[in-house]
Design goal:
8 strands; Rossmann fold; 6-stranded parallel sheet
Length: about 210
């Protein structure tokens, strides 16, 4: 691919993907409802994201790695995801995903959608099952903004040529860092602080905003 003209960075869960993947994994432990409530509070910005993620990941302890086949079968791209990424590439841009979710899912889903770069958390594994902790540094709000800056630098793009798309409180830093921050399928606090709000839950609505 030739030099990029611009960069679009997506959040994953409830933005590029219809699902909150941690809830799908929690279903495998019989704790889906409990984790869903904690995720909702974190996305509204009511609790610290990293603290919330650690407690939610603890609820996943014991889920076998074999269960990820079932999890992946339930992951659904958001309407218009493939069309938007195709148009990003047609216009000479790059598509990236930075997620408070997990590489164990994105490493399969991101390339299938044509995403160029991605970063997420990793889940620690012991004896072919989740150990209930995050492996390495947590990708939080600051981590998302840092990833956007790093990718822009890698592509030799000014931040003014970047777009960030997200739905939750942990997306606000990267949305503020980008040249254009778009609230998509977003919580009220995110809609209030975004540069623009996408009303329909269809990523094709972003295409007219591409450079």
């Amino acid at each position: 691919m030739p030099d990029a003209r611009f960069l679009v960075v997506f959040d994953a869960d409830s933005t590029l993907l219809r699902n909150e993947v941690i809830e799908l994994i929690a279903d495998e432990a019989g704790r889906g409802r409990e984790v869903a409530a904690a995720t909702e509070a974190a996305m509204r910005g009511e609790v610290d994201f990293a603290t919330s993620l650690r407690s939610r990941v603890a609820a996943l302890r014991g889920v076998p790695m074999a269960a990820f086949e079932r999890v992946l079968s339930r992951v659904e791209p958001t309407s218009g995801a493939a069309e938007l990424i195709g148009e990003i590439h047609a216009r000479g841009g790059r598509a990236a995903v930075v997620s408070g979710g997990f590489h164990e899912v994105l490493d399969t889903v991101a390339p299938s959608l044509g995403v160029d770069m991605w970063r997420a958390n990793r889940l620690a594994v012991t004896d072919e099952a989740l150990s209930g902790v995050v492996d390495g540094d947590i990708v939080d709000a600051a981590g998302k903004a840092t990833a956007l800056r790093a990718w822009a630098a890698q592509l030799a793009l000014p931040l003014s040529r970047t777009i960030a798309i997200g739905d939750g409180a942990n997306d606000l830093d990267m949305m503020a860092t980008a040249g254009l921050g778009l609230a998509f399928n977003a919580k009220p606090a995110v809609r209030q602080r975004a540069d623009l709000v996408i009303g329909d839950v269809d990523l094709r609505e972003v295409i007219p905003l591409l450079p």
